[in-house]
Amino acid sequence: MNLLALDTSTEWLSIAVQRRGVAQPWHLEAAGGAQSSARLIDDIQQLMAQAGLRFNQLDAIVFGAGPGAFTGLRTACAVAQGLAFGARLTVLPLDTLLTLAEQARAQLATDGSLAVTALLDARMDELYAARYQFDQGRWQRTEEPQLIKPEALHCPPGDVLAGNVFTPYGTRLPAAAQRVEVRPSACAMLRLAPAALAAGGGVDAAQALPIYIRDKVAQTTQERLAQRAGAAT
């Protein structure tokens, strides 16, 4: 399939373009965060040019729908919607935590049975977590995404922990069969997209929405001071 995938759910920007008949996608990863909205469209246009594709030749646009950074999710969704409206394309909102699980599977180079607890740094001393099982070439979510404290995570024996949380929260997480440091990858999204589209995950651009788990996106000054005092203690 001809696909464009983009993710700005973390402080990193990830974009990839897949062209039918070409084995390897064109991809770009760079510092994102506040810069994502300023550079995202230019970077997409450059990758599309490298792939020799016009937007109306795409089969769908895939974006990291969350959970993740509030502004980043809105940026990716808005860009995917705008491009899809102009070219009359299907949009595929893709679970960011599933993307982490797929990236871990690729990094481990396994096609066998695999259980992954995917973890994304949610800031404010919390993390997003969900559990996935890979069998016979397909992923299935076995535990819904949740927002929790690191100490509240329960990891079944044999699970791989995968995500970007080990530097800030590593000592507060349970033991696991293996820990794999990964961040959301547009290349992983390209691998997941065909099955998700075949299962009916594609939507009209107007219906594409981010996945929000946290309602509160910032702490008050008093809460930040209390957290620092607790950490010092």
Explain how this protein is built.
The protein is an alpha/beta fold and 233 residues long. It folds into 2 domains: 3-95 and 184-207, 2-Layer Sandwich (Nucleotidyltransferase, domain 5), CATH 3.30.420; 97-181, ATPase, nucleotide binding domain (Nucleotidyltransferase, domain 5, 2-Layer Sandwich). Helix content is 33%, strand content 30%. It contains 6 helices and 10 strands, in the order βββαβαβαββββαβαα. The protein has a 5-stranded mixed sheet, sandwiched between helices. Helix 2 (70-87) links the parallel strand 4 and strand 5. Helix 3 crosses helix 5 (186-198). The longest helix is centred in the middle third of the chain and has 18 residues, at 70-87. The radius of gyration is 18 Å and the shape is globular. The N and C termini lie far apart (54 Å).
